[in-house]
Structure formats: C-alpha cells, structure tokens
Fold:
Amino acid sequence: MRRSSSAVLQARPAIIALYVLIFAKGVSAQVGAPPPPAAQATPLPLSGRNGQSGGVTAAEAPVPSTTTSVNTLNPTVSVQGAFAGSTPSTTQLPFSGKLSFDDAIQRAIRYNLGAVGMAEAVLQSRGQARAARSALLPNVSGDAADTEETFNLRSIGINFNFPGVSIPSVVGPFNVLDVRGRISQSIANFTNLNNYRSAKELARAGALSAKDAEDLVVLAVGGAYLQVIAANARLESTRAQLETANALYQQTMMQLQFGRAAQIDVNRSHVEVLLDQQRLVTLQNELAKQKINLARVTGLPPNADYDLSTDVPFAPAPSLTLEDAIKQAFEQRSDLKAAGAQVAAAERALAAARAERLPSASASADYGVNGDPSNLRGTYTFSGTLSVPIWNGGRTAGDIQQAESALAQRRAELEDTRSQIESEVRNAYLDLQAAASQVDVAQQNIDLMTETLGETRQRFDAGVSQSVDLVQSQESVAGARLDYIDSVFSHNLAKLSLARAVGNASQSLHNFLKFQ
Structure:
C-alpha cells in the first residue's frame, strides 16, 4: 500500500503538467487572440468627376454629355454616351402609337440608359455607406467547435520514467466541445467615424448627381423631340412647295399649248418640280432618322412607326432677367450641390486620415460552454483594448497627403462648376435673345416674300413677266419659311437650354416652352 501511494506521489508532477498543458491550451484559445488591426482612412480619387478607388459612386462615375448648338443656320442637339441609349419602356408603359412631350420626358427619366445607370450608382454608393457604418456598430457572431485530440508529451519535454508507474508518452484522445457567442464593439475610433461620414457625403453627392442627370435627360429628350417637330415642319413646307411647283408646271404647259409661254418656261417649271421632289425625299429620310433617335432615348422600339401628339409653336420666353437666372441656377443646380457634397466628403476623408494618429479603443466579450460533452461548464471572456499608434512606417503621413490633394482638387472643381453654370446661363440667355430676334426677322421676311410672290404671279398671269421670275419668288418664299422653322426651333431649343441651365428643368419645362 505504501508502495502504491509512493508511486502516485511520484507520478503527480506528470499529471499536474498534463493538466497545466490542457489548461494552457484552453486559455490560449479564448484570450490569446491578437488585437484588431488599426483602422485606415478610405482614400478618395483625385477628381470627383471621373474615376474612383474601391468602387463606383454616382457622384464619381463618368457623366455622359448632352450639348446643344443654337443658331438659325444649323441648330442641333448632340447626345453622347449613355444618354443616347435606353432600356425598353413599352413593357411597363403601354404605347398607343402617339408620343406626347410629357410622355417622352417621363419615359426617358425612367428608362434612359444614362438615368438608369446613375440611379443604380446611387444605390451602390448607399451600400458603400452602410458598409462603412458597420465598422461603428457591434459585431455579433456565434461558433461551435468539437475537437478530438491526442498529444505527444515528449514534444514539449515531458518524459517521466518511474519504477512501477507507466506514463504513456501520448495522452488522449480528448473530446472537447465549445459553443460560444461573441460580440465586439469599437468604442473610440475616429478614423472609422470619419470614413462613415465621408461615405454619407459621397452618397448624398451621388443622389444629387442623379437629380442633375434628370435635367440632362430633359435636355436630351426635349431637344430630340423639338428636332422631330422641326423636321416634320420642313417636310410639310416642302410638300406645299411641291404642290405649288406642280401647279405652276401645269399652268405653263397650258400656256405652251396656247402659245403664251415658251418651252424654256416649261422646262424651268419642270426642273423646279424635280428639285422639290428630291428635297421631299431627303426630308422624309431625315424625319425618319430623327424619330428613330427620339425612340432610342425614350425606350421605344427603334423605328419611326409613331406620331407626335404635341406641338411646340413659337411663344415668348418667360420674363426672367439674367441676374435672376444666375441666382436661381446657383440655388437650384444639383450638380453644384453635388460638387459641394464632394468637398464635404473630402474634408471628412482628411479628418479620417489625421485620426490615424489618435488612440483607439475597443471591447470584446464572449460567453459559452465548453468541456467534455457529458460535462459542460459555462465560461466567458471580456477584454478591452487601447491601441496607441507610435509609428507605422509613414503610412499615416501618406494617407494625409493623399487626402489633402483630393480635397484641393474637389475645391477647385467646385469653383469650376460655379463658373461653368454661370457661363451656361449666360450663353443660353444670349442664344434666347438672338433666336427671338431671328424669329421676328424671319416672320417679316415671310410676309414680304409672300407679297412679292403674289405680285409676281399677277404679272406672270398677265404675261408681263417670265416664269423664271415666278420660280425665283417661289424659291424665296420657301427659303423664308424654312428660315422661320429653323428660327422657331432655335428659340425653343434656347428656352430648353435655359431651363436646364437654371435647374429643375423637368418642373419648369411647361413654363419655358408653353407647349400644347
């Protein structure tokens, strides 16, 4: 009996060492985790207008352009990039075959590819803001582990050899079950806080850019609609001119039979008919192409098999002084507000970079049960961590330098946006004044040329003048009518451009164009 007790006493150090080993492994599994990595400021791209780092936001995505060229010689609307396309709109909005101005605008706002892309980019920027916010909120997780293990004592230097006592060099197997819930919380981390604030400003800038995209859609679709109206007016004018030329040709043919006109007069009138027929074919082709372009930007099938149901005649522009227009533009333009939000985001990013030099604190806790499945015991861990940055190889200085450069660029872009908006308002205002004068001159020209044509026809019917004079008068009237059509188109386009330059074009469109 004494021998057995002595053997047990001699084996006690090995048993104690074994328990210490098992306890040490359990402790290391629970509290031996390294501290969380230091937070880093999220870098912003140098420019807030194109390109981005770490994702796409509406405020930073490349914005397609829509430009107008307003003059009575060659008024045009140029739509480039994503705004020139669309997704199908007839699947959700039935189409009767007649397209009104309001219907075209509403379809484009919902289905134009530029507007759709900006709306999706807004959702993405909001998702990035939510991801940045997650660093400030508690993180809760749970895990369960069932481990069966054997261990070689000799691998850690435990090698006992006592007479009469057999201690194996490999112990186990041990079956340990651990079921645990964990929670961690950042208590004071100003870098993560400013990263979230910067992401919120970027999301706000994205929403404002999407709002500005609606004005670009109005400009693109409204200009395309006006082009179709003008093309149709040119076609109708040429068709009326062709009927007049045919009537003159028939009249000269009759006069030739009675000897009151020469063959050269018949030939001249016939040539005029052929020229008008050529112009008619060209204008029919141009009208079809303009209708296809309008269909493309509104989400309709890309064909010309539809009619317009809205007429936009000449109407005086709303009484708005240049100073009031510039003031309203500075107050309403969404792209200016987006540029301001970009500056605010860059300021928050700089604050996040500077906060990398500040201490941060975090806390974590877990609770669960572990041990042999037949004998589980509750255990918990609570830890608090205070991290004090000392030196990280110059990373913080580099982050600050990047953030300062981005902020300087965003401020420069804000000032440039203000200057650009003022120049757009001034240009649209000048175009509007010039187009209004051109409409007045074109109308007077039509009246004079129509009066001259009537007198020339009377002289021709009386046999006093030749057919060449009548043909020239008809050409002059036709040219005056085309000038009037182009000047009215230029005037409407200038009003549309001014509505976009002032801001909130979709709401103020009726006030500027006064279409029927």
